[in-house]
Amino acid sequence: MNLPLAAVLAFTLISLCVAQGKKIPLSQGKRSDWKPPGAVRRPWTASLQQPWPLPIRPRQQLFPKQPRPFEKPVQPDKPLQAPKEDYGVTSLARDVKLTNYKDKVYHCQVEIGTPGQKFNMAIHTGYPASWIPSVHCPPEYTLSSHYYRRYNNASSSTYRANGKEFTALYEDGEVEGYWSQDTLKVAGLKVRNQSFGEAVLEPNMFKDMNIDGVLGLRPRAAFEGEELTVMDNMVRQKLLPAPVFSLYLNRFDSEDRDSVLTLGGTNTDYYTGEFVVAPLTRPNRWQFKIDGVQIANHSGVFSKSGCHAELDSGTPLILGPIEEVNIVHLQLGGIPLQGWPRTFLFDCAKVDSLPDLEFIVSGQKLSISSKDYIIKEYKDGEVSCYSAVEGMFWRKDETPVWVLGTAFMRAYYTLFDVGNKRIGFAKAKH
Ligand SMILES: *[C@@H]1O[C@H](CO)[C@@H](O)[C@H](O)[C@H]1NC(C)=O
Ligand SMILES: *[C@@H]1O[C@H](CO)[C@@H](O)[C@H](O)[C@H]1NC(C)=O
Ligand SMILES: *[C@@H]1O[C@H](CO)[C@@H](O)[C@H](O)[C@H]1NC(C)=O
């Protein structure tokens, strides 16, 4: 089935117009039909041969009921310097082993409750809340996959009811439930009174990802409610030597070591060289300024005027403003996939010689090679090569940003400095 570009554009425009005038309904535990407008809209997932899963990046704020207030850019509270000097105490930081599920999602094992109930939780730097499936999820709303474990509050001695409604909207549906509190254990750290969503309704988009829930690692904005994030609690309960965490993400089909989330510091085993540091440009997102995106050894520089990028481990892709993404692929020689104009196809025989893609941050080039931005998909003995870089629609009231998912993060060891509101990049040691 090949949808002409015009139909795709028309659909998007219509849906944008319809969504513009609509109020977001207050869902009182009921399933609402409203879908977030714009953004990574992919209505044809089922019928087209799209090889790549939907990002688990939520398209909506955690509490969509209030408008997002104007957020002032954050000024760094001290001169920028290599974070290594501040937080080099790696002996006290904790490493959490991550499992890379086919380069689609990275998850770690977390225990919730006393005695602990184990869950595979996707690490998500684009989302503040953590959630897991509840034993109270009615059968008609469950995925009935046996590996989906469920939290049972009745068998935990440290459970505390909260009961406030929990909602998280994703591209392909919404997770609904209520907030609860319990002890959360990760890497031997015991976080008390941790709030998390107990999901009683989940979309089936998580079915092929081998995860039970999500561990939110984005700072929470004031309008997103009062529930403290896991990092908030770890810092308040003084479990970490420094209010930071960092990520090393391995490549699925290589001999790499395990992926690692380091809580409270950096781990020098996993990176080389100095950190390139950028202050956050929105206080509760891992968002920073980029001065340009370019292809190595090409003269064209995009976004010269400056743009912003967000680090989001919740998507395997690199998402950018559509026009810029199209120019990138024009220069690289990618061909739009028929019926799927935002996915670009490459000749597999040539992908190894494709030039690097460079993001300019704090005056330095952060470059990723085709090994990172080309996805190889094997099917029936044949291999197809797709670009991980895709165009993304934005709502009228949103400023387009680049979303750097795990295709980018595999190339760079990333430091998320909660205390100083900044982010650091060092070359990952594969
Ligand atoms: C567990 O949660 C259910 C549903 O919210 C509630 O009715 C029940 O009282 C809770 N169990 C305990 C032991 O608190
Ligand atoms: C957890 O909550 C209980 C009840 O509100 C309180 O007594 C206790 O001090 C809290 N523990 C921590 C570590 O915050
Ligand atoms: C790009 O230019 C640099 C130096 O100018 C050179 O070393 C490198 O091989 C070139 N890369 C490609 C892909 O042509």
TrEMBL record:
Query: Which ranges form a coiled coil?
Result: none
**Would I find Signal among this entry's keywords?**
yes
UniProt keyword terms in alphabetical order: Signal
Q: Where is this region: Disordered?
A: 63-84
- Peptidase A1 domain boundaries: 106-426
InterPro entries, per database record? Aspartic_peptidase_A1, PEPTIDASE_A1, Peptidase_aspartic_dom_sf
Q: Would you indicate the residue range of the signal peptide?
A: 1-21
Q: Name one GO molecular function term.
A: aspartic-type endopeptidase activity
PROSITE patterns with a match to the protein in the record: PEPTIDASE_A1
- Any Gene Ontology biological process: proteolysis
Tell me the protein family, please: Belongs to the peptidase A1 family.
Protein name (record):
Cathepsin d
